[in-house]
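pasting for the record
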Amino acid sequence: MKILLFPGVVFHELAHYVMCKILGVEVKKVSISLDSGFVRHVVPRSIIVSLLIAVAPGVLAAAFSLFALSFSLSNIYYEIVKHYLVFAVLYESFPSKADTNFTANHSLLKKIIFFPLFAVFRLFYFFSRNKYLKAIFSLLVMNLSYYAIIWASLL
């Protein structure tokens, strides 16, 4: 099963890496295996930069699904592969425990101010520990993407 979700793992870590590069945060190490990965980077001075790096996989996965599902391919096999990739990317876009610790290494005041975001992010992490709920949520986002595309085309 883990090998089937590998494209999602790659996308997740690539999203962290790209966001680090966009925000000018030095990346120390990138590691990807079949079931997990990590991007080790210098701790940013700004907690907002830390938050942007942490949420990058979810935001980019949603954008990817909207883009990929907004057009159809001529071959049914390509359509199946496209839907599989969208599912894998959405499934692996949930935050890891390390992603939810974006407030670590920041001052107590910043931790207090950003506690609501931290709590929501940590809730997503606990939600993602159940693979069935994670799969249902991924399918729900795929369907919502379709509805958003249909609604946008009617405007």
